[in-house]
């Protein structure tokens, strides 16, 4: 699913690095599952959680009812999109609020190209049909990362709200998050985190310069994506 901050463009690079550390039968857990663009590339036991209830409802709709989604911009129009903010919470609103929005930002404006020729509803439908079977048997949970019930000795991948980014409106306590990661690692979980920077006891095991949206602190158009692992020294 189209989602702001999606790791879809780098998932095929970093997933094998993490999976090389995965033990037989180890559950894959994503406390910040977002658009499901990493978890849909993983096999076996999987849990995807997110604090945003619209995210989980949208992914559940894709997983279980993708064939019933709007197929083109005749079935779902810009006028219908503009009415979404007035409607009650429902699966189609949850899906459309991300999939048909600019950059996948929740109700962030109707997606369009400069020429006005691309049918983003149709593109989103094709993407959902492709993603749907990849989400089968994924347990989807609406909760905070620190409220998630995680099986013993799981592999945890966190794509948290990046520090200093403009793309998230809600406050996020990064210090609390990093301490939670330390606790999880000490409990026997294998913990990976995507971020630009991390505390000294988290080591980057992969990095790549990517095009990025503007950051609040630097205004940079490029950033170095990194994958960290807790080393505890």
Please list the strands of the largest sheet in the order they lie side by side: 3-2-1-4-5-7-6
What is the rounded Rg?
A: 18 Å
Low-confidence stretches: 214-218
| Share of residues in helices | 25-40%
In short:
It is built from 6 helices and 7 strands; from the N terminus they run αββααααββαβββ.
Give your account of this protein's structure.
The chain is globular and about 55 Å long. The chain is built from 6 helices and 7 strands; from the N terminus they run H-E-E-H-H-H-H-E-E-H-E-E-E. It folds into 2 domains: 11-53 and 138-230, Rossmann fold (3-Layer(aba) Sandwich); 63-135, no CATH class. Helix 2 (53-65) crosses helix 4 (91-99). Helix 6 (174-186) links the parallel strand 4 (155-158) and strand 5. With 233 residues, the protein is α/β, with parallel strands linked by helices. Helices cover 26% and strands 18% of the residues.
Notable traits:
233 residues; alpha/beta; Rossmann fold; 2 domains; 7 strands
Q: What does the secondary structure layout of this molecule look like, with pairings?
A:
Layout: H1 11-19, E1 28-30, E2 46-50, H2 53-65, H3 78-82, H4 91-99, H5 120-131, E3 139-142, E4 155-158, H6 174-186, E5 190-195, E6 202-211, E7 222-230
Parallel strand pairs: 1-2, 1-4, 2-3, 4-5
Antiparallel strand pairs: 5-7, 6-7
Helix pairs in contact: 2-4
């Amino acid at each position: 699913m189209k989602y702001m901050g999606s790791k879809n463009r780098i998932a095929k690079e970093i997933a094998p690095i993490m999976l090389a550390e995965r033990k037989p039968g180890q559950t894959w857990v994503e406390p910040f599952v977002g658009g499901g663009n990493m978890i849909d590339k993983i096999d076996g036991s999987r849990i995807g959680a997110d604090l945003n209830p619209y995210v989980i409802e949208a992914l559940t709709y894709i997983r279980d009812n993708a064939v019933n989604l709007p197929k083109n911009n005749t079935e779902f129009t810009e006028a219908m999109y503009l009415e979404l903010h007035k409607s009650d919470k429902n699966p189609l609103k949850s899906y459309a609020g991300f999939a048909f929005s600019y950059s996948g930002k929740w109700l962030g404006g109707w997606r369009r190209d400069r020429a006005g020729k691309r049918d983003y509803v149709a593109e989103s439908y094709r993407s959902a049909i492709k993603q749907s079977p990849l989400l089968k048997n994924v347990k989807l949970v609406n909760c905070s990362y620190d409220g998630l019930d995680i099986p013993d000795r799981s592999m945890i991948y966190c794509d948290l709200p990046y520090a200093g980014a403009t793309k998230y409106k809600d406050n996020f306590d990064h210090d609390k998050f990093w301490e939670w990661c330390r606790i999880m690692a000490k409990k026997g979980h294998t913990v990976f985190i995507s971020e630009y920077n991390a505390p000294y006891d988290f080591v980057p095991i992969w990095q790549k310069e990517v095009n990025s949206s503007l950051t609040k602190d630097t205004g940079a158009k490029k950033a170095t994506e990194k994958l960290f692992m807790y080393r505890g020294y």
